[in-house]
Amino acid sequence: MKIQNKFLSTISERIKPLNIAHRGGMGLYPENTMFAFKSVIHVHNVDALEIDLQLTKDNIPIIIHDSTIDRTTNGKGKVRDLTFDELQSFDAGYNFTVDNGKTFPFRGMNITIPSLEEFLYQFSNILINIEIKYNSLLLIIKTKKLLKKFRAYQNVIIGSGLIGVSRKMQPYFLKCGLFFSRFDIYLFALRNIIGVPTKYFEKFDVLEIPMFSNNFHVLNYFNKLIKKSSLPVFVWGVDNFETIQDAVNKKVNGLITDRPDLVNLILYNK
């Protein structure tokens, strides 16, 4: 464990799991927007923010989960085919609804897709969980430069679900915590069966897994493996009272949640 990393140190110091706002609390606010990040910090006092990175046509790292803007904005197109200035013309709060499309409370509020630089300018002192979604060495290098510029290394856990990106990025973020790729999660789950040496996993600092996958209870499966390991565990897909309480009972270290308000209710009665 890289104890000099503030995020990892915070995990080891905490008794209760960290309340980590998934895409800025996407069950409450338009996901991956500055409006959401500010809201979950000031209204819900979350412990950390979880964000996703893609790269624009003019090679600017931006915070958006999908490779297209179709789902989260009033525009259409691939992120990689649009410049940052072009992306700013779209409403990133346009499609947000909590009542199946009856109302859209954040339309027309000048909510846009943020750049990583804009985000770090305001939140470099906050604990940040970053997933790189696009397979690009340039995105990795630009992300590293921005983390260095804002002195944010110590507050960051970073990784990618994509095995190729995960391998590529590891030498660039030695001061950050590193989470498992999807492929490495499978290896970890099967390590005793296929004989993967424990040393292979020493480069990773955090295991981030879904609560469920295709109705399979992933956390239940990993729970025994976790107890035999000193790895901290973050769980995502914990967005209602039942799943949050289940994860808390299993003593996970972090809850990556769309509903940080519910996490506060369960952990702190507030």
Q: Which helices and strands, and how do they pair?
A:
Layout: H1 6-13, E1 18-22, H2 34-42, E2 48-55, E3 61-63, H3 84-87, H4 116-123, E4 127-132, H5 137-149, E5 156-159, H6 163-169, E6 177-178, H7 182-194, E7 207-210, E8 212-213, E9 216-217, H8 218-227, E10 233-236, H9 241-249, E11 254-257, H10 260-268
Parallel strand pairs: 1-2, 1-11, 2-4, 4-5, 5-6, 7-10, 10-11
Antiparallel strand pairs: 2-3, 8-9
Helix pairs in contact: 9-10
Description:
The protein is of the alpha/beta class and about 270 residues long. It has one domain (about 5-65, about 115-270): TIM Barrel (Alpha-Beta Barrel), CATH 3.20.20. Helix content is about 35%, strand content about 15%. The chain has helices spanning about 5-15, 35-40, 85, 115-125, 135-150, 165-170, 180-195, 220-225, 240-250, 260-270; strands at about 20, 50-55, 60-65, 125-130, 155-160, 175-180, 205-210, 210-215, 215, 235, 255. Helix 6 (about 165-170) links the parallel strand 5 and strand 6 (about 175-180). The longest helix is centred in the middle third of the chain and has 13 residues, at about 135-150. It is globular. The model has no long low-confidence stretch (mean pLDDT about 95).
